[in-house]
Amino acid sequence: MKKIFIIASILFPLLIWSQIDSGIIQYKIVYNDAFENSKLNFLYSDEDLNTFKELSLKLCLELKFNTTQSSFNAISLPEFTENQTQNALKYLKLDGYYKKINTETKIDYYKNDSSFGLFIIQFDSPLEWQLINESKIIDGYKCFRAVTTLIDYSFMKNPTSEVTAWYCPEIPVNLGPKRLNGLPGLIFESNERDVTLRVSRISLDLRNKIEFNTPFEGKKISNLDYKKLIDDYIKEMNNN
User: Is 97 helix (H, G, I), strand (E, B) or coil?
Assistant: First the structure.
């Protein structure tokens, strides 16, 4: 039986600033059978699904950070329309834009919700991780496995999901894709809801020449308040 170490990520600073001041980490999307057979497939035509798959194989997801903040979002591709890109990201469960301010204890998730409008949903940070005594090599780096549980009420029927992450202590950046953070090393790979993200390029120590552009101004709301908004919406729909 694998030995599991349970530890609260608050024991680790979000970034080890003294060692790495800034960087840009790019991720790619990796398909698996479970994702190909997703129950969401019936919502889209075969033509749309083929477009999403073609797009996702080219799509770049980018984590940027410096000594004060970080962000994670997708880079649009010129050969696809903005609508195609947004629909593909929604299908991949990657729509939205995450931003973390180092001096705060929240992560802002910028989301353009088709039902509710523009929102900035605030998630608590840091996360609580289980560090598992299991390793594998990813692109020549030794990475270790960790798991955590995320709650995201934008998934109305099943807001709780388990996330598996593979982090590399050789790169002391305690960040990763989406709102994943708090591990003692950069997250090289993550799997959540049958979507796997894997590091494709690492550029570190860019002397803080990184700019952060928030995508829009929206109403700021806590994750629990967002849940109440969704619950009220479902209740109203059921009464009609």
Answer: strand
Separation between Cα atoms, residue 164 and residue 145, nearest integer Å: 7
pTM: 0.86
Q: Where are the alpha helices (DSSP H) in the chain?
A: 33-36, 46-58, 82-91, 223-239
Amino acid letter, 64: K
The predicted-structure confidence for 16-70, as pLDDT tens digits, reads as follows 434 688 999 999 988 766 666 665 566 778 888 788 878 888 888 999 998 888 9
Instruction: Please list, in sequence order, all residues whose beta carbon lies within 8 angstroms of the beta carbon of residue 88, skipping any fewer than 6 positions away.
Output: 51, 52, 55, 56, 59, 80
Neighbours of 88 (CB within 10 A): 25
Report the largest interatomic distance among the alpha carbons of the chain, rounded to a whole angstrom.
57
The whole-angstrom separation of Cα 13 and Cα 167 is 15
187: nearest Cα among 95, 63, 102: 63
Contact 169, 185 (CB under 8 A): yes
Per-residue burial over 94-124, b = 16 or more CB atoms within 10 Å of its CB, e = otherwise: bbbbbbbbeeeebbbbbbbbeebeebbbbbe
CA 3 – CA 160 distance, rounded (Å): 24
Name the burial class of residue 6, with classes exposed (0-12), middle (13-18) and buried (19+) by CB atoms within 10 angstroms of its CB.
exposed
The two tokens of residue 201 are: 């390029």
